[in-house]
## 1
Amino acid sequence: MEEKLSLQEWIDLAETKKISFGDFCIDFQAKELEIDKKVLLERMEDMLHVMEQSVAIGLTGIASMGGLVGGNGKKVEVYRSESTDKSVVGSVMSKAIMIALAVGEANASMGRIVAAPTAGASGTLPAVLFSLAEARGFSMGELGKALIVAGAIGMVISSRASLSGAAGGCQAECGSAAAMAAGAAVELYGGSPEQVGQAVAITLKNMLGLVCDPVAGLVEVPCVKRNAGAAAQAMVAAEMALAGICSVIPVDEVIDAMAAVGNAMSCTLKETAQGGLAVSPTGILLANKLFAKVES
């Protein structure tokens, strides 16, 4: 059995070295991959460009393969342009919602995305990164460093729990994506390594137990909208962490708890479309219609 990674250990090392968690992660990853730091950051920027393309695809109003989602990212874009004084959540969060939906819809239409950490949760991280970049003018280089932080968080979660909805429910997909985005946001705003860990812990605690119940087994309903919800959770957790609020339960223990919850979760709630919204009357009706089309 592979030894579990520890986010807290990495955080402590960064604090001891008196460097940001982003700098620690860049050093660590460059050594692990045996590549120059500049090359590593260039790879991250390449991924960011793919994310931008995914947003653009989604904002065309493209329909999903199953026809259950499509055009909602575009709706938010139009709403933002016409109702600047009516937003419930403000410009930054509204932008994040738009991006999360757009990327989720791009994925559901078989468009190119960056699995961050999975295709079904691919809208959360770009939603947080790009909405904050617009608000604060972060450069692609700064976003690239934040992306490396997000990746490091995902590595630990994968090591101690899972990133798969089939293994751990949607807490493992959208929950992990939100935790990665929260840590990345704290890094962008100059938070300490310890605050990065607090943001991760708070996010996962708030999303603990989220089930994976895709209607008709497609990554469309409720998956796309959950990306927007996950982006919101990430921002809430980052704000709390930057304010100095701490999780009572340490970050590694929170991740371990997520693993335990995932293991205890019924298989009907782990991507099998046999529970939750997938077996609601409307969910079953939609699935039957889709399967009838396939058979005909």
Note: The CA atoms of residues 233 and 295 lie 40 Å apart.
## 2
Amino acid sequence: MTRILVVDDEPQILRALRINLAARHYEVTVAADGASALREAVDSSPDLVILDLGLPDLDGVDVIHGLRGWTTIPIIVLSGRAGNQDKIEALDAGADDYVTKPFGIDELLARVRAVTRRASIQETELASIQIGVHVIDLTNKTISSDIRLTPTEWHILETLLRHPGKLISQRQILTEVWGARFVKETHYLRQYMAQLRRKLERDPAHPAHLITEPGMGYRFKP
């Protein structure tokens, strides 16, 4: 049974999530503040954390940093903060996905299923990935067609493909590919993403796999 730690200071949300998750056969523990969440994460070893950013004692981003100091368990952020900057900070800190309050329980459950599936994927399963009609071999850096990618295109593509379904922030990709000095050069990334779509997507204007999350980043949708 998948163990989920829900962290929120609103009792009605904790109760609703506990009931809905338990009804779907998840094992649920709860915490109402950041310090309790960090202790509970150590004690209960959850498979997934659902975390509110607006906690009474610690900012949710600080909780993410605390968790990422010792674990790679998936983290879904819940927050009433609708601004992109808060989402970007949470993602850069190590969150795997972000749902804005108010949210539908079906949407949250879909995100839970997606991140738990991703967490169970082994590295060997990522060696070969399909995008449309193209089979991409990440180990040997080859594509089952006459398409050729530049080293930079490979680096960007690999960053996305190794985290299927996960929203990767622009800052994270820019830092990974070009270095920390280039975190504001988002036009570089837009140009390369456009090139990748032209080479790999059936319809580059309406991509099915290399998805843009406006103002935030990109996501590979298997």
Note: The mean pLDDT is 88.
## 3
Amino acid sequence: MTATVTAPSVGALLRGWRQRRRLSQLDLALDAGVSARHLSFLETGRSRPSREMLLRLAERLEVPLRERNELLLAAGFAPAYGRRALDSPDMAAVTRALDLVLTAYEPYPALVVDRSWELVTANSSVALFLDGVAPHLLEPPANVLRLSLHPEGLAPRIANLPQWRAHVLHRLGREAHLTGDPGLAALHRELSALPGGTDRSTPDGIAVPLRVRAGGEVLSFLSTVTTFGTAVDLTAAELSVEAFLPADERTAEVLRAARSPVANPRLPGG
């Protein structure tokens, strides 16, 4: 016997996103400028949403672009957001912007990842984090979170591994919940099973640092994230640049002294 998988209705998808955002029907209706009764009818299937209504509700619910397309398809509409390959001519401005940002961060490590945390490209300073990493973790598509927490990756060199691991898992778990992405949820389960200790202490200071052993010293970094805030292409919308800036003057001195003239090579996964 073959099991039949029924795709969720557009109403069920809307209800799921509303509940994920912890909004009542009244809260969402007021924010979107519709009646709570009409929203209830949309969720139960008694009314069919227009394309414009779906996009308005998706915007208020902060539904990722990929999942907005799924809502439209479930309602019988064509997707609103396209996906272009990063190396296509239409994406030339995006790749130039990424190269500019990566180069500007030198001599500090910076890398580009997609929504799944797979490495797209990086600047030359990221080589600092790759010393001693097992080759299989760098095979495309290389996942940077797996690379950082895996015992054959960067993890043995992270001086504050339990603290950093807790930060990474919390961030990944939140992204999995907010996006509803089953791939991120599976990655969270995988990384949670890796060794590394648990840090239940209350964070202090300004931000959780990444403290990496290198050359007989411990270098300390704070991470920042940059995204394309107005992107309407799925590829561009799901890219982010994560940079690791020195958290103390000694780290800055070491990185400036080790600066390489080579600019942002494509690493495995690029």
Note: The CA atoms of residues 133 and 153 lie 5 Å apart.
